[in-house]
What we know:
- By secondary structure, this protein is of the alpha+beta class.
- Helix content is 30%, strand content 33%.
- The chain contains 3 helices and 10 strands.
- The model has no long low-confidence stretch (mean pLDDT 88).
Amino acid sequence: MTREFAITAPDARLVWMLPALATLLVLVGIAILATQEPHAWVALPVAFMAFAVLAVLLRRRRVSVDAGVLTIAAGINTRRVALADLDLSAARIVDLREHGELRPLVKVFGTRLPGLAMGHFRLRDRGPAFVLVTDRSRVLVLPEKPGMKGAGKTLLLSLQQPQALLDALHKTGA
Length: 174
């Protein structure tokens, strides 16, 4: 039985500010180029398709537990972790503004926009992490056990009810 946990919605004004500005600049560039080269309008459908793909990927955010596996879908990335590989004794809910060492610092592969971080990152303490952070005030920190595949990775999740996921993980006996 799959159980899903609601993600805290990011501030849409912050998340869409940069993509909207980029799209506007592309459209203006196409319009300027089209005054000199009439075939430049062919790039318009490509620009709209790129924006549509970006919109779909930015909205792809999901956390679920099913058959002993925690699945996190974050944009183009998906991370699956066996519940037995999580160190639940070290799991906690934090405010990233107070715990600076846990803030995502370097994006390895993922998406970083104002108000949104998804994918593989290095934290300020240089440790590897998989993050889905939309609100820094309440973030569930789930470290993986040492010696496991992907050992040392920390999962950072912005959930509407982070304690509900933590309770569900404890109930499974992971």
